[in-house]
Amino acid sequence: MLAHPNLATTTHKTWALILAAGHGHRLAAALNGTSKQFLLWQNLPLFWHPALAISRSSVVDGVIFVFPPEELQLAQAMIRDARCRKDLGLPWFVTAGGELRQDSVRLGLEALPANARHVLVHDAARPFLQPNLVRRISAALNEGADGVIPVVPVTDTIKTIADGRVTGTLPRANLMSVQTPQGFALEVLREAHAYALKTRLTVTDDAALLEALGYEVRAIPGEDHNVKITRPEDLDRLHDTSPQEVRTGMGYDVHRFGQGHPLKLGGVPIPGTQEVVAHSDGDVLLHALIDAILGCACLDDIGTHFPDNDPRFEGISSAVLLHQALDMAHEAGFTPLHADMTVVAQSPRLTPYRNEIKKNVARLLSLPPDAVNLKATTEEHLGFTGRVEGIKAYAIVTATRAPYRETRPAE
Ligand code: MG
Known about the structure:
Structural class: alpha/beta
Number of helices: 13
Distance between the termini: 19 Å
CATH architecture of the largest domain: Alpha-Beta Complex
Number of strands: 20
Low-confidence stretches: 1-11, 404-411
Bound molecules: magnesium ion
């Protein structure tokens, strides 16, 4: 069992168990053998999503993840990566589960800290959990309930069947579909699991153990979207509900006028005007654009990748640098959607070149012409642009990130 380093210094009352120890045979083939809890959705493992909702509920003090014993190493590697992307901000443990779901719950309960009083048991394969449901379950436990389960009405008619023949129709009004998290007074759930172990009682949810012992289980409204990813067709929900990650990057650059390179903006030569001092070809607009692209992908800045003291970049076309920056952004999963740019110069006047620059930038970014905008302004004779000592440019690029990868990360 691995402890979060801060665990010893905090106090805990309500803990969550996230059950990620199943093997999901119904889905394994569709996922090339990957267990569904390790599937990446929105660049995070499936099991991490409910943990984030639990963390955002502000009513849970820590999380225990229960994984198959043989997958603990993979799980730890995935958690390290997930924490870098979106940390829980809560103490957490990782522990090994057992053969049946109820074995995994029992082993998870053994891993809880001594001062835990309430526990929420949640299936990792319900990634759409929202903090509000967690809060409502916690509130019912604080009111004194021994067990709390979220339920949603059954919408299909349910029949009993034997040997391919209908033997009865159940009255639907009293039927409810049960979700997780299920909340429990910890002592009661521990007692129930000890009873199940002793009597070899097998159940499909923890509430059934309380029912067997005569404890009252309270039902509260569940949430329609809190579904379980179980069958191959459920994977479509992950595609359908993935909001694409959208990022915005900004770039800014300045070049001094002086003897050097003929002025180019957005790759378009602007003849008969000032030259710019620069190590590369001095295209201030493309430099701002490169920084905006790198900004979308959090890849630092142009100076880091193309230092102005590196002889390889002397006099180099900025379009080449732009392509390299685009390659790096693509490698990180980002595709530009839109660019908005502003050139600030007292001179030259850019209106005659505006369309050509826009068209060329759109071509360089592989964007349609209506996804690129260029503004030109002066600074009213103020400052260094006003004194015609130099030129500056701003660029803002919006990019989307590929939301879904089906491959396992490197261990
Ligand atoms: Mg520059």
